[in-house]
Structure formats: C-alpha cells, structure tokens
C-alpha cells in the first residue's frame, strides 16, 4: 500500500521497489585503475580526474539528485567519491591534510534543490585527514550552463566565481560533472589567485 501512495524507484534505472538497485550500485564501483585522468576542452592547469562517463544510470541519478529532489542519492555518490579520494591519496596525487572545496553552484539552483548536492557529497565523502570548505560562490545573474555551447559556457562563467574566506593547505576541487571544464578552470584560477594550492579536480562524471 505504501508503494502505491509513495512509489519507490531506483534513481539510476527506475526499477521499482528500491531507491538504489544493486545493478546501479555496481555501475558506480570505483575500480583499481580509477579515477581516470581526463582532458577537458578547457584546461584548468591541474590534473582532472573522473569516476566515470556522464551516461546511463550515472547520468540519470545525477539528474534525479539535482533536478528532482532525490537527496537520497547523495549517499551512493559520496561512497564513490570517498573511494576515489582514497585512491588519489594512496597514489600520492594529493596529500593530507587536504581541503575539499566543492565546485560553486548558482544560489537560485541551490534554493530550488533544497541545498547544494555537490557540497553534500563532499561532506559525506570526507575521509580522515580531509576537511570540507565551501569556499566558492557563483555571482548573481550567472546562467544555467545546460544547453550552452562550449564558447558560451566559457563566457558565462568567466569572472563569475568568487572565493569567500581563506582556504588553507592543499586543495582538491570536487565537482559533479565536468563538461567543457569552464567551471573547473575558473574555480582553480580564483582559488590560486587567492593563494590556495590546488592539486587536482575530482568529478563524479565527465561528458
């Protein structure tokens, strides 16, 4: 009866009776050679790592989390990010103490979503030796990047990211999806201008 009133379905594939099925959970598994290095169109000047392609159940779950209020999907993504973060620490790409800085989001989008999912993922994924500092903010009147061409994305984000407060130690930028790399590049630039030591970018997915 409860399922008839409030039907459960997997956030990745829509399977009924579960919020996150085992098949989709396996799709987020971080393998021994992951996260992978990617080369976005706009180089942020630091290594960019991704946990997988923005496709299939990963893409569907990200959209469900960001656009349809599926905050229950923060947990599975945080588990994957924590595994990727541990791998980067083990590889020596980053070193503790490490500051995790979520990529910025528009305030209007955060209000509509009931919070910032990237910050929620970073906070849930933090491992010993790391701390989360939500230091980046998007200036007002920044457009949603969905549907914009690569050039439009670059112009839309240029000069729109600002740092709120000092960020100490080594920094790892956390993002949900890297497409052209415009947000990552601008975020890294403003953090470095503010004196932060940005080691790399880690994203849940890349397009």
Automatic annotation (TrEMBL):
Gene3D superfamilies reported for this sequence: 3.40.50.2020
Family per record: Belongs to the ComF/GntX family.
Species name: Mycolicibacterium hodleri
Protein name per its UniProtKB record: ComF family protein
